[in-house]
Amino acid sequence: MKHILSAKHIMLGATGLAVLSALSGCQSNSEENQNAQESQNKFIVAEQLSNGKYVIVEEMPTTGPSHAIIRSKDENGTIHERVMTEAEMKSLADEEYKKMQSGKSELNGEPHSEGMGLGGTILAAAGGALLGNMIGNALMNNKNVQRHQDMSNRSAYHRSASGMNSSPSSTSPKKSFFGGSSSKSTSGGGFFGG
Is 121's pLDDT higher than 80? Predict the structure, then answer.
């Protein structure tokens, strides 16, 4: 009877180790998935504010070419929408990136209000997808661009993707798979109840 009980414990332990190793494998791939996600083509809906600046109200990855819908209101309050193709987006983003390199873009400074010009909005939201990973990484490593992006992107997709970027502080205890703190050590019996 004791051998059967030990075999059950061994089987349970092996299964637990397999599950934990699978979970840790998923965790290590999250950075690779994030980089792939940044370079995906994007579908964006940008809305013009009353001050003439633009904010992103919807953003999502797409398997087709990148494109955007630009919403604006006329003086009567009528909403107009136009579709911007990937070529148009790429042209605007490239112009804004050149301005940024010469120090003439609003992305170079601290944000002063919500929204940006259309070129800055497109570049901040989809620069990596439109201009390539090198430029996308340069934009992601620029704190001013991140601040502008956070202020002008209202989409749920951006908020969830930004949540993946934040890292927990080093002072907070890490939680284990079962909810306890991994810094605690237990004393007493071993795994097999000994």
Answer: yes
